[in-house]
Structures are given as C-alpha cells and as structure tokens.
Design a protein that fits this description.
6 helices; single chain; 27% helix; 2,3-Dihydroxybiphenyl 1,2-Dioxygenase, domain 1; 29% strand; four-stranded mixed beta sheet; Cyclic Phosphodiesterase, Chain: A; globular; 13 strands; five-stranded mixed beta sheet; alpha+beta
C-alpha cells in the first residue's frame, strides 16, 4: 500500500539562479512564491551530504496551478559540480514540460530569452491521447524543456476527493453561435442516437458545494463579461463526454476566469483547463 503523499516541487540547480528565475517568469509566466531562500548550517549539510553547503534561490509558482500547486525550486550553491550538456535520452530526470497555445511562438520566446532549440517542431498522433505538436528546447543553462500544444495536451483530469457528484462551470456561447452549435448538436444527436446537451465551454469542474458555487459565480460575474474565443479546429477522442468537439485556443482571459473560479470555489479539484 503506498504511503500518503503529495507532490510539492521539482528542484533545479542553477549556475545563476536569478537569471533562470527571470527566464521562466518571462517566457512561461511563472511567479515567485514565498520568500527568497538563503540556507546553510549543519542541518543542511546533514540532509544533502554537501559539506559547508550554502544555497540561495526561490520557489516559482507554475502556470495553471493555484497557490497550493507544485512549484519549480531554482537554487544555486556556492560550490557547484558541473556536468555536460543534458541529452534527451540521458538517465535521470530529463525535462520539464509546459502546455502552450502556440508551439512556434513558445520556441521563439525561449530563444529570444537566451535559450535554444534541441530539435525541430514535430506533429504526431498518439493513440488514446490525440494529436500533439511538440518541441524540445533548452533554457539559458542548457536544461531541457518541452513545449506542446494540441487537444490532448490539455485533457481535463478530475479528482474530487472521492465525491460522486461535481459542479461544472460553463461559458455559454453568444446568441448567434449558440443557435449554430445547438442546431448542429441536435442534428448529430438525432442521426447517431446520441445525447443532446447545451453548447458550452467548460471553465472549471469542482466539488458539489452550492455555497462555494454561488460565491464563485458571483465573483466571476462581477469581473468578467464577454470573452472572445478562437476556434482551432474540429477534433475527436475516445472519451464519451468529448467524442467530437471544437478545440479553442487558450488565451489570457480564459486562464484568468478559470483561476478566479478555482480560487473562489476553494476545493481540491485538479481540473486542468482545456477550452473545447
């Protein structure tokens, strides 16, 4: 039986921790969490088996997660052990990955901020997952990172502490778009004996708590009005609830609305936003 555990952070040792922190904040939207660390002492020597260790750095909040999400811990030691340039097939931890709206744009941003490409941008179809557009790149110190886009890269995953029911928060299309999608859904449902449902884009799925839902919706209604979405294309999957769907591009307002509702709902859902 596994121990009770929660993943909290990944540690990255940098030659210049401030430069790497700036890179991940500028390119991927990470944000510092908590105070800057300045650690030393016999307890640290005992823990990491590095004599007279002294390290400095900071934890970064990762995009797509709230205050309680895992962090990227970027530290520098006074004394470092150098290694060669990491390779994708090198044993051990190989890379960190980010889902992005536009892989080409992400690679350009990485290079502009002092990083580099490992290989070329590629597209593939993964059975049971869907289509992916992906590239490997390096941060300014050569560490490998993975940027990917595609419907499957943002597949929602729900774990609501064993609850049997949840509340889904939807964006409803404007009137003309609503009529179009409603007619299309009705036609497909009739032709293929499928269920009929309301056209929508799911923003968040959380615990079945009416009070939390009312608070979340009230806050969202105060802060948001119209949000424009860009359709990327039609896709399909093996999931019953998303057999055929329109994939929309992620944008800043969607992320902010998702985070507004997540924070107001105050539950432990690990739902990942996937606009479709």
């Amino acid at each position: 039986m596994p121990i009770h555990a929660k993943y909290v952070h990944t540690n990255l040792i940098a030659r210049d921790w401030k430069r790497l922190v700036q890179f991940y904040c500028d390119v991927f939207g990470c944000r510092a969490k908590g105070p800057e660390r300045d650690l030393s002492g016999s307890w640290l020597d005992s823990v990491n088996a590095v004599p007279k260790a002294h390290l400095r750095g900071v934890h970064l909040r990762l995009p797509g997660y709230g205050d309680d999400g895992p962090t990227l811990e970027i530290f520098s030691y006074d004394q470092l052990i150098e290694r060669g340039l990491p390779a994708a097939n090198q044993c051990g931890f190989a890379h960190i990955a980010f889902v992005v709206d536009d892989v080409d744009q992400a690679l350009q941003a990485v290079i502009a901020a002092g990083g580099s490409a490992v290989g070329n941008i590629a597209m593939t179809q993964v059975n049971g997952v869907g289509s992916l557009r992906v590239v490997y790149a390096r941060d300014p110190e050569g560490n490998i990172l993975n940027s990917r886009s595609g419907a499957s890269a943002l597949t929602p995953k729900i774990n609501i502490q064993g609850r049997s029911s949840v509340i889904a928060y939807w964006l409803i299309p404007a009137e003309s778009a609503h009529r179009f999608f409603q007619r299309l859904i009705k036609d497909l449902a009739r032709r293929y004996d499928a269920p009929f449902f309301e056209p929508h884009v799911t923003i968040y799925v959380g615990a079945n708590d009416a009070n939390a839902a009312e608070k979340a919706l009230s806050k969202a209604a105060r802060e948001w009005q119209t949000i424009n979405l860009k359709a990327l294309g039609i896709n399909h999957s093996d999931e019953f609830i998303k057999t055929l769907f329109v994939q929309f591009a992620m944008n800043r307002k969607l992320r902010q609305l998702h985070q507004t509702i997540r924070n107001a709902a105050q539950d432990l859902s690990d739902y990942e936003l996937n606009p479709h």
